[in-house]
From TrEMBL:
One of its GO terms (biological process) is regulation of transcription by RNA polymerase II. Component of the Mediator complex, which is composed of MED1, MED4, MED6, MED7, MED8, MED9, MED10, MED11, MED12, MED13, MED13L, MED14, MED15, MED16, MED17, MED18, MED19, MED20, MED21, MED22, MED23, MED24, MED25, MED26, MED27, MED29, MED30, MED31, CCNC, CDK8 and CDC2L6/CDK11. The MED12, MED13, CCNC and CDK8 subunits form a distinct module termed the CDK8 module. Mediator containing the CDK8 module is less active than Mediator lacking this module in supporting transcriptional activation. The gene is MED10. Signal peptide: none annotated. Keywords: Activator, Nucleus, Transcription, Transcription regulation. InterPro entries: Mediator_Med10. Transmembrane segments: none annotated. One of its GO terms (molecular function) is transcription coregulator activity. It is found in: Nucleus. Belongs to the Mediator complex subunit 10 family. This is Mediator of RNA polymerase II transcription subunit 10. Component of the Mediator complex, a coactivator involved in the regulated transcription of nearly all RNA polymerase II-dependent genes. Mediator functions as a bridge to convey information from gene-specific regulatory proteins to the basal RNA polymerase II transcription machinery. Mediator is recruited to promoters by direct interactions with regulatory proteins and serves as a scaffold for the assembly of a functional preinitiation complex with RNA polymerase II and the general transcription factors.
Length: 94
């Protein structure tokens, strides 16, 4: 009777939870005897690591762009002056 009552309680709650999705990895954590909250923690850690990686790539590309514009300004000063005027930049990058 206890199990039946528990299943009925779960069935009653089903309507409130119909739009919630649980990643399959959470069930794998549970099957492995691990705490499902670790899944959230590890997802956040992976997201932070990826964010740092992408930030590093963005910073590298900004530095590359700056150096490229600098070198192109030395070789093609007139063209780069036009480019800067189109872009709304008044002065060459240092």
């Amino acid at each position: 009777n206890f199990i039946v009552t528990g299943l009925q309680d779960i069935d009653k709650c089903r309507q409130q939870l119909h739009d919630i999705t649980v990643p399959l990895e959470v069930f794998e954590y549970i099957d492995q005897g691990r705490n499902p909250q670790l899944y959230t923690k590890e997802c956040l850690e992976r997201a932070l690591a990826k964010n740092e990686q992408v930030k590093g790539k963005i910073d590298t590309m900004k530095k590359f762009k700056s150096l490229l514009i600098q070198e192109l300004s030395k070789v093609f000063p007139e063209d780069m002056a036009k480019y800067r005027s189109i872009r709304g930049e008044d002065h060459p990058p240092s």
